[in-house]
Amino acid sequence: MPEEKLVQQAEAVTKQIKIALIEQDVTQRRLSAIIGELPQQVSRAINGGMDPKSRRIRQKIYKVLKMEESE
C-alpha cells in the first residue's frame, strides 16, 4: 500500500507540472534550457524520480513555473 501511495503522488506531481507547462506555453525542452539541466534529467524529475538530483531539479521547476512545492 505505501508503494501505491508513492506512485499516486508521483503521478499527481507529473500532472501538475505538465499542466503548468501547458498553461505557460513552455515545452520540456525549453524548460530544461531555462534551468540549465539536460532534457532527460528534466523528464526523469517530472515523471517522479526520487533521487536527490531529480528532487533538486523539481525545486528549480517549481520556482520557474511559480508553483507551490508539493513534495
Summarize the structure.
The protein has 71 residues and is mostly helical.
Defining traits:
71 residues, mainly alpha, 4 helices, globular
What does the secondary structure layout of this molecule look like, with pairings?
Blueprint: H1 2-23, H2 28-35, H3 39-46, H4 52-64
Helix pairs in contact: 2-3, 3-4
Q: What is the first-to-last residue Cα distance?
A: 19 Å
Oligomer: single chain
**What is the N-to-C order of secondary-structure elements (H for helix, E for strand)?**
HHHH
Low-confidence stretches: none
Say how many strands there are: 0
Explain the overall architecture:
The mean pLDDT is 92. The protein is mainly alpha-helical. It has helices at residues 2-23, 28-35, 39-46, 52-64. α2 (28-35) crosses α3 and α3 (39-46) packs across α4 (52-64). The two termini are 19 Å apart. The protein contains four helices and no strands.
